[in-house]
Protein 1
Amino acid sequence: MMLCSPLLGALLTIVAGCLCLLKLLRHRGPREPPLDKGLVPWLGHAVAFRKNMYEFLKRMWAKHGDVFTVQLGGQYITFVMDPLSFGPIIKDTQRTLDFTEFAHELVLKVFGYRPMDGDHQMIHSASTKHLMGQGLEDLNKAMLDCLSLVMLGPKGPSLDASCWHEDGLFRFCYSILFKAGFLSLFGCTKDKAQDLLESEELFTKFRRFDLLFPRFVYSLLGPREWVEVGQLQRLFHKRLSVEQNLEKDGISNWLGYMLQFLREQGIDSSMQDKFNFMMLWASQGNTGPTCFWALMFLLKHQDAMKAVQEEATQVLGEGRLEGRKSFAFALSSLKHTPVLDSVIEETLRLGTSPTLLRMVQKDCVLKMDSGQEYQIRRGDKVALFPYLSVHMDPDIHPEPTVFKYNRFLNPDGTRKVDFYKSGKKIHHYNMPWGSGVSICPGRFFALSEIKIFVLLMVMYFDFELVDPNVPVPPLHPRRWGFGTSQPSYEVRFRYRLKPMHAVSS
């Protein structure tokens, strides 16, 4: 038996080497998409892809057409760029394209959480129960209370509330949405000042993790950064531990439902802590950046700002503070803001760039809308990048790089849903939340967070750019494919509580 081990090890090494060699020697087979392996063995186009995914895919699309396979760090990924052909990939009635395997690998690496087979269904069930209908209304109320706490302070506006304050617009939006979202989901203690301090400290750590996140996913961190990421992971596991959360009031029913499920499945508390970290990221990683883009576009397009302000006044009336400590807000009005809905949908079109990935479980045939069929190999991945192929398609969205606040409005003020490509009505005309099995389960709450924040800003605050001529920043090239993009640079702005709301001396 002792002699078998070295022989077995050598045999496995030979087999693994042969498999790697076969991958390196891969050639395009009959009926397969164009194959572009790049010039560097195994690595392929990984460097160009990670440097600027958008520009890389644009070049590949121009070179190869609507379907092509590229080698990226030993993986072969087939990109489909024709949105009229998205349906079979998103629906996958043949069950040959799997989302969960890739997602499980990612959350284990990034958050330390080891998913179970039933997790995906559990999260969607919890979101249907608590992020829609009455559950969503309850969470919106908690979010409004927490926004009041974060934006006005535990004692309400101070004497200098009507004075101008200067800040970075991205930092302002991200920090406020994170802190209010964290408190509304994970609960508060009786010491509101301490809660604010904790949420501010946690945001600082969250932002640092966020900056490392893209290179962490691609395993491109330096030695010290790997150490730092490990420290940050452990910090969040500790700060979000179920033991600490038991001491808080008002933990959301959404989170409580999921933790109860994990307990019933016998998942230990340390893994529940890691689950909490994952859900904090999923719920708070995109809303703040989206609010930055929304306010930035409103500040640069005064016609849009005026339209949103008029709608807010019409639907909500004049803003007022209740008890000098909280915002008065009829949350039912969120269902009656078509102009703001269009503004946010246009913001998401311009500012979000998710990648939809599926693992090919067995050899299959990919049929395009044109009738062309392509053979796809087991073990490869199929990917969609709708920012380039949908959001920036001038056939679907004329002048796609221009912000048009009413792009998603019909002339009668109703929501516009009829968009066309090549004369055909297209179903997937805007995909900020993904689609199919990988669609964001928390999208309804995220939309509510964004809408409440924007309405509070236009109703209760005066705000303006420090430099009115500063352009809208380009999207950061390293954030392609990771949900809502972030700006390449910060933009300074100033704000104040409207004088009518300030405390008189």
Protein 2
Amino acid sequence: MLYLLSFILIAMIGIQARQITPAEVKARQRRAYEKLLEARIPTPPITSTGIKNITFSNPKASEFWVDGTAIPEVDFDIGPSWAGLLPISGAQNETRELFFWFFPPAAQGSLDDLIFWTNGGPGCSSLEGLLQENGPFSWSWGTGAPIVNQFSWTNLSSIIYIEQPVGTGFSRGTPNIKNEDDLAAQLVGFLQQFLEVFSELKGKKFYIAGESYAGMYVPYIANFIFENPGMLDLNLQGTWISDPSITTNVVSQNIPALNFVNKYENVFALNSSFKQTLQATAESCGYADYMETFVTYPPTGPLPLPGNTTTVSRNCGIWRMIFNAALLINPAFNEYRIFDTFPILWDVLGFPGSFEDIQVSPIYFDRLDVKQAIHAPTDVAWTECSNVRVFPQGDASQPSSFTVLPNVIEKSRRSVIVHGLADFILMSDGSRIAIQNMTWGGMQGFQTPIQTESFVVDGMGVMGNMHNERGLTYYEVALSGHMIPQFSPKSAFQIMQYLMGFRETP
């Protein structure tokens, strides 16, 4: 009898469940998910209507206004924003223009601050950072439709995404820069034109942020601003560079490669004979035991280059050896986040891993309706990373840690370098070497060791390692790949809060 009653009860529950509409199921799932977020991640979420009121007196600003209710595929109001092309100088015959998308702060954000975000490449679009990292709406890998990004940096302040240098994304014109100083001059020239249209943003506290090759862009731009006071009516406070290119490929890729594989040996799953080959290669090339021998706290002097050269010989390309072997074992191997395996997540931007994705669906920013909604040129074929050489003859600048980064740290209120520990294309040990070989504030490197489990994220606990000395704070984020605001958004949000002075402790 008990069994029969149970069967009837289950059947009745099943009948009731079948009567719920798909819309009700979706609503219940969303409410349950929101309650879970509230319980586990105590951060006030952004709302689609919670935007600070901001107006611009220049009539030209209205030409760039974007209707937040009319963004294709976005079924919520992202609020007002401004987007379009502006020239890199005030010259009447100027043909070079950069594309931007500017967002005012959300309800809890500051009207006194402005963040500039750039992706790297060189030649990769900052709209990737907008859509999949720290923008007010997000359409990340494997997501069926855009969603509200509760960890948007608009919760902190206004933010402008700029596709730069010339040749990147929707930006127009023929690239002609030779080095990072040329790039910085053109970017500052663009910002001068931007501030003439959006003059109410003049005098704001300014933060320059970016990832990857922006480890070159950001310090050189910041240094240009500091060394040319009065050129730009913004008050530069500090810089963020994450998983940055700040040193040579020998240091950022080849020296750390063996230690990285040994740390994640179960992820790479390389066989024992190949690992012996890697060990022998590392020893013959001067990579083995480099961290233990030379990366000390404090340093004992300049850190040597293996073989006294920045060139990686054919016999010493250990990073490439590992990458090729990893692809044989895991054809979905992702150099940006090593934990990925098949199936490869669909990416609306067509670039989810080590290689471009081949897909039938159109790339989001290459859709005509999207271009029209954000005042982008309709005759430009948008790709996440440009097929155009933005440095036509290559970038002649030295790595930023060799040149301008120390000056930027010294002149900034705060500076942060952030690294995802699951990033293989640029590894955290490479950043550690670069920092310990760099002199700022009258000393070389960090004077005391980086303590393990020292980066604690509110409501989550230990999320990696952190160290602070002489105006520079260095973070290592556990489980995160190359794009930290995408892979560990709450960690990134807290770090940006610290950089901007919204929290006192790192």
Protein 3
Amino acid sequence: MNHVTVVDKRDLEKAEEQLTVVGRAVAEDPLPEPSAEPELEYVPDGGREAWTVVLGSSLALFASAGMINTYGTFQNYYETTLLPSSSSSIISLIGSLQIFFLYFLGTITGRIFDAYGTSVLIPAGTLISVFSLMMVSLAQKDQAYQVILSQGVLFGIGLAMLFNPAIAVLGHWFRRRRALAIGLTTGGSASGGVIFPVILEKLIPAVGFGWAVRIIAFIILGCLTVSCLTIRTRLPLSGRISLRTAVDLGGWKDPRYGLATIAGFLLFYSFFIPYFYIQIYGNFRGVRPGIANYLLAIMNAMTVPSRVLPGFIADRYGTLHVFVPAASICTILVLGLWLPSRNAASIIAFSALYGLFSGAFVSLLPTYIASITPREVYGARLGSVYMVVAVATLVGTPTGGALLKVTDESHFTSLIIFSGVLIGAGTVTLTMAGLVGSPRLRWISERSPFGKKS
């Protein structure tokens, strides 16, 4: 018994010594993990460096995606002058290829961005974009394949290397004001869509199509040079590429994600149709060339505030509270204003109003996906959404061109109704995503006999 008592006392003394050591360590360095966590999750949400990145990203989208918004001017020139033997569907395929590569390659460029940041993608995208436009300037008459390869494929690849990193890098610098930052950045693409059509309309008669495109290429080179110097990452990079995780299908388990993806497909299937065909429609209705040639510029000019203001409002009131009304108004505009428009005043009004409300589509879709997705898988899930959107943009405007085999009343009516119905269907699907994610609906579902878990 005495031996047992001695052992017990020794054990108690050792335990007290260990507790003393642990207590001293805790007192000297209390809770080290929480002190490190805020540093890891810290986001500036402003400041000189953060807004400098926004400037560089805006210029990148101005120079790259701004050319997508300019394609209506190219479409009109190709149909009338450079590629008169090609169908409207084939010519619109050139523009849709740009958009397809922009979104489809987002999964790959997203992985490269996670591994190496913007130091590789932005300079490479700059070289490819400028080189492709130089090749466009050398395209020969009725040689559609030359324009398809240079402007459709090569320029589209360059776009993907610029657009996606310019948007993704904002997540390194903004969280609470992310929608505003994305809105300001995507406003750059809208500004390019205003300026580039005007430059082309002025330069083509003066110096010819080739030199007009070369001048555009030099402007783009200047803008992207600034982007290369100002866009930079802040968070640690992985340093390795894993294409296996480029696409995350786990988001489909969330009905909000699935409905938002379907809505994105429907909305972007018809989103670019007015941008591609409004100038042709103005010429068909007899609008004076001095006005018809600037309809696309008017539409793009009005998207500038619609890229910025919705993001600011969405940060305060929720993304869908802005997205759904904007999509609803676009449906009304296409079916209620564009369809019956017959004169310059109504066509100008449609161009301005559609640009004003449709610009929210580009900035609010990734913002909504971010709001329902864990941060660690956001890039992969957004890439999955963009793959679906890429298919929609690839077939959307060529479908419109197939509906417009002949430029007459009945074919334009079919084109406009097709566009309006798809936007309306996308709006309904987006509304369903909001209803599924509604806290009130979840509260009712959880308390209903069918919603209770056994």
